[in-house]
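Retro notes
What went well: the complex prediction finally ran end to end.
Inputs used:
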Amino acid sequence: MKKVVSVLLTAALAVSMLAGCGSEEKKDALYIGGIGPTTGGTAIYGTAVKNGAQIAVDEINAAGGISGYQIEYKFEDDQNDAEKAVNAYNTLKDWGMQILMGTVTTLPCVGVVDKTGADNMFQVTPSASSTDVIKGDNVFQICFTDPNQGTKSAEYIGENNLAKKVAIIYDSSDVYSSGIEEKFVEEAENQGLEIVSAEAFTADSKTDFSTQLRKAQDAGAELVFLPIYYQESSIILTQADAMGFDPIFFSCDGMDGILTMENFDTSLAEGVMLLTPFAADAEDEATKKFVSTYKEKYGDTPNQFAADAYDAVYTIKEAIEQAVADGAEITPKTASSDICDALKTAMTKINVSGLTGGEDGLKWAETGEVNKEPKAVKIENGVYVGM
Amino acid sequence: MKKIDLTNMKKTTKDHLVTYGMVLVVYVIVQIMLASGSLSSLMQGLLVPLTIYSVVAVGLNLCVGYLGELSLGHAGFMCVGAFSSAFFTKCMEHTGMNESVRFLLAIVIGTLVAALFGFLIGIPVLRLRGDYLAIVTLAFGEIIKNVMNVLYVGRDGSGFHFSIKDSASLNMAEDGEMIINGAKGITGTPHQSTFTIGVILILVSLFVVFNLVNSRSGRAIMAIRDNRIAAESVGINITKFKLLGFTISAAIAGAGGVLYAHNLSTLTALPANFGYNMSIMILVFVVLGGMGSFRGSIISAVLLTMLPEVLRGLSDYRMLIYAVVLIAMMLFNWAPKAIEWRERHSIRDRLRNRKTKEVR
Amino acid sequence: MTFLTHLINGISLGSIYAIIALGYTMVYGIAKMLNFAHGDVIMIGCYAVFMSMSSLALPPAVSVVLAIVVCTVLGIVIEKVAYKPLRKASPLAVLITAIGVSYLLQNIALLLFGADSKSFQSIVAFPPLKLAGGNLIIPSVTIVTVILCIVIVAALLTFIKKTKAGQAMLAVSEDKEAAQLMGVNVNGTISLTFAIGSGLAAVAGVLLCSAYPTLTPYTGSMPGIKAFTAAVFGGIGSIWGAFVGGILLGVIEILGRAYISSQLSDAIVFAVLILVLLVKPTGIFGKPIHEKV
């Protein structure tokens, strides 16, 4: 019986294996795939991207699609693992993907860009922020690179004389966090900032930050730099409050989301400063519309990942329209490699006025790095106020 | 007496041949499918991971099934094998060394380094029993992962620089090149793991374990597993044989790690790939495939690695279903009631009964 | 003063580990199985409190009782469905099943509550204790945690010593077959143990999330593993062992982070564990294994 079950399972798998091939049916839509973690500890980012992009796709489809073609959109889970991300990428290829919007997190993205480079598949990543991601000429980023954020943060603190004694709490097991920290320390020296304590935590011990905070307090830090995500920041703010430690907290785009975290006492975040490309309570029409649609459909307030994904889809749309205007042919039947060649040149010509682009919009260099200015905001009375 | 021995021998030899044959047949089928282009991209991408997990599962089965020791740290050995081999490959990348020779050396280095770690860790660990041993192997695995995350190694004109703080404290010259960059690990390792090499590694590790368990040493290892005191009383050197088994098991896991490192262009020590979660996943392969059955390990490694991929159609529910399938399979395979039911409803028995009826 | 602060933080973290470890150790003592799903029961307990406080607007005390009920029932159900059929199977099979249950609980929580983390409002609402002119501040949740931990340990020890059910537990953990022959209801005792262990998990969950206020479907897994380590540290199966092991682990983790390296704090914890086990192979309070031929 045991063997029979095994045999049956093997047979079922063999069939599904074969089922993947020969998908040369008639397509009448542009196939855009997405990859990111929708299960596992980082599921929140993948889910935000999945949903944010879905809203953009729905809007575009309702408005008549991209140069007359509807978008078919499919999102696959990678559990924040490079190997699973490659599996997800291959699954999407079997599905008929022509353009990839992903991946969400950096490490899986480094694994996938290798494959997209080899296949010459056009790729826009909403949020993978390491510089390793854009090594190939087929990959473009919507978010800032980590080094960029680190340098900009130190510059901002130095130029505005926010503090002289700075403490850092960062996640040494995370690429995003340690990437920012590294450049921040480098630039801090140029700005004449004194790093009085630089304490780390890891993915395996991110519940208690009392030690790191106490060390920062003892070292007399006037400002604590937090190049980390808002979940850990929420604990840090709570614990700092409990121990009566009240420095300036300065953070990057990972902090965005703290005000909308369910049940969080936002008075704790009062006075926190951050560099972020997106603010969910911005007053412009586009943001308002996006936020209300997102809330209606998914019940949450979107964070910057959702906004980046929304912009990523619109970026793809504009790039395709630019390419078509330049004479390229992009239809549901065009091979992904041909699309990629056309879009690569189109990307450097377009200027997308997205949710995260600020006043000047998003522009790209040939390297794939985005050119947009981070905005510094301060939390006052529970809302972001520009600085 | 002699005759019985002979038939026994034949049975095990036959069993081994079936296992080798199974691997070869699958290999040939896959090659044919590849040549005819009838293999989906997903499957093509999965081929190397499947061989990786098969190799590691074979290694762990030697430890769990034959040595009788529960190890929750085999991902640590994979990690060591992966990093040491990728380090070697990165160092040799610009020396113009022949790529195949370099990869072959990388496999040897990864395996040997993992074996060395297995040996060093095995000396203290194997003094412990049961769950205490399990937790200490888990602890070693976690330590390896944690240290890898803060290890910075760079190279410039004046040689190698090490640090366990950050990249700035390496004090490298301008032309310096980071090789292991802390949490970012090693990036840009060339893709050299192929299905063929993976299959060869499976066959080699099968060859090693089959020969070991059927040798004098293997019988000593099993004697220790079944009754330590009795084994000791007949003069078997417990430490020596346990250490032998554990080291070989670690070495095989390290070889799997080499394949892993050369399959993706990014290599980092994360909880997902080299943490206790991975050790547990490999243990699941071994237990589900049947402890002591190397063929079973390979089959269940392949099936369970493919399962979540095949379930992708279920989107949000896929990991939920995976968990349910896992529990159901365990209950079905191990619960005494289920075993009884299976025996009563065994298809093979029914067929046999029918045959006997026909004869009547 | 700084050292004292670190020490208090360590004891606070350690007390939570200790309460979780008690659940591990009790189940291990009776059923001889590592209940890998224990950490996830904690997470379910947290969500139960969170939902009843935020959605049903119940007062904290009622929510905690509700969470204890939810976890107790959950513990009994898991035992009945997943572990009981495997009572006579290999311990490894049960271990793998427990891992399956752990995945299952995580993914159910992911589907029910979503992946975004929730901020947990501390259920301990009185102000912190200030000593030495404000130099030493002890958060109220720390005080509650430490006191509760001691109370629970004392209660458990009395329960096992003084009550019939407790004596039955002791008997079952010593020798299942013999206990059965003496008229002890083995299945009932095992269910009771799971119930108590899971109830404790709910308490631990509430304290964990009150002290470190974020809640995701994966909140329980790492504290679960650390507490399991703590239980082994102290000698698995021993209540005193879980208590001492938990506190020690917390203190080592915090002091290691404070005085050696914050990047390597996990490695330090595990290294100390290894050293202890090498000197005392069955943990601090573990009984030596007597081998029979």
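What we learned: The longest strand of chain C covers residues 129-131.
What to try next: split runs per interface for comparison.
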